[in-house]
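Handoff note, outgoing to incoming analyst
You'll be picking up this chain. Sequence as last confirmed:
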Amino acid sequence: MTEAMETDVLVVGGGLAGLTAAVGLRESGLRTIVVESEDILGGRARSWTDETTGDPVHIGPHIFMSEYPNMRKLLRELGTEDRVVWNGNRFILIVDGRTEIPIDFSDLPAPLHFAPSLNKDPRYTRADVLSNVPLALFSLQLTEEDVLRLDGVNASAFMRSMGVTDRFVQGFWAFTSMAIMNVPLELCSAGALLRFYRRLIGHTRYQVGFADGGLGDLFAPGAKSLIEESGGQVLLGARVRTLDGDARRVTGATLEDGRAIRARYTVAALPPDALRCLSRREWMRHAPFRDLSRFVPSPYVSTFLWFDRKLTHQRFWARSYDPNDLSCDFYDLSNIHTGWQDRPSLITTNCIWCHRAEGMDDEAIVAATVRELADYIPEAAEARVVHSVVNRIPMAIHCPFPGTESLRPQVRTAIDGLFLAGDWIATGLPSSMESACMAGWRVAEEVLAEEGRRERLAVEHLEPDGMSGLLWRFGKRLPLTRLPRWIPPHRFA
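Most recent structure output, in case you need it:
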């Protein structure tokens, strides 16, 4: 037996949320210990060096948004914000076979900034695009109360109830649900999806960005250094066996190797399934512990392909949505990473909600990915894959099924001394890196409040601008856009 380690704050989980919380507390004078079960920090955004090529790879490609103020604040404090490669005026390139459909930002004010691209999209008629206007106007007026009211509503049925054509539903909304919400449209909460859409069309100018190098390298090493420089500790390969305490209070944790850590405050920066494994039976009468089983993980497969030649100069594109496709979005890292422009293509893809890949071995996944790539770039069929890595990830985010938005918890719990952090916390954002960082800053605020110190660490998102801002401020006087309020929610279920 060893003597228990004593600390003020114990953070269980070394992903974005846990590291952000610890960074937020680093100048507080509180002693902090971060424990991470893996040998690498970063959680579901971690990265490492590929043993064969020596290249940095990550668990799967992620995108940044310039309107991610909490993520960008973390990177600024770590000195790595300049390691985000921004994509300029291009939002996304959709490919349908060899046909390229660029979705770019125009100079029109939001929500019209996507209108020129949508009007040129050969997949839709003008009637299809116009059918989405009432839904867009409605989305821009949503409050958080509205989002929760629509949480139990099926997104696919709701779009059609608003008059959106089948062609636009299947082309635009089905793709958006899968790419952003990580579930098929018919399984998605209308409230969750429209909350995202309000942000998408609410700002006139923003950009998509990518990590210049390994994603986790942008935040994990720097966060570890800051935590340790302030007197804290980071323990890797330290799996928690139990959260200690009783029905009313948490007093720390015991690790699998028998070490005990006593803490005044414990932050569980864990996904719902991991938290459920550590929750005490007595807590199950309290939210969110009684509802943890309702947060279902959305799995995905991320494939990295090193080719023997340069295949494209595009950075990022996605296939026009087809539920039978394996991959959704593609990235050529040779066109993203600094100094890699003359290298052969290193293409990585995401297979989201990857149940369709069950039973496929790595070789079959690589072959199917190359076939889909060749639909857009025929030369890929002739190129040689010199190395490949297939990452199978049990959880991208929790599935935003109807009803789950209402279950997302606050950072404070009914258990004294226990706080929660993670992308699934009630941040008012889709589960994402930004949501994880916002939850991390908020939990640091709450711990400091317990110490009698009121500090503002989380950054609130800006309200809509342009014409979207006018609709947000004054649109409640337009009853036509509030039509769904007149129809009971069960009509859409």
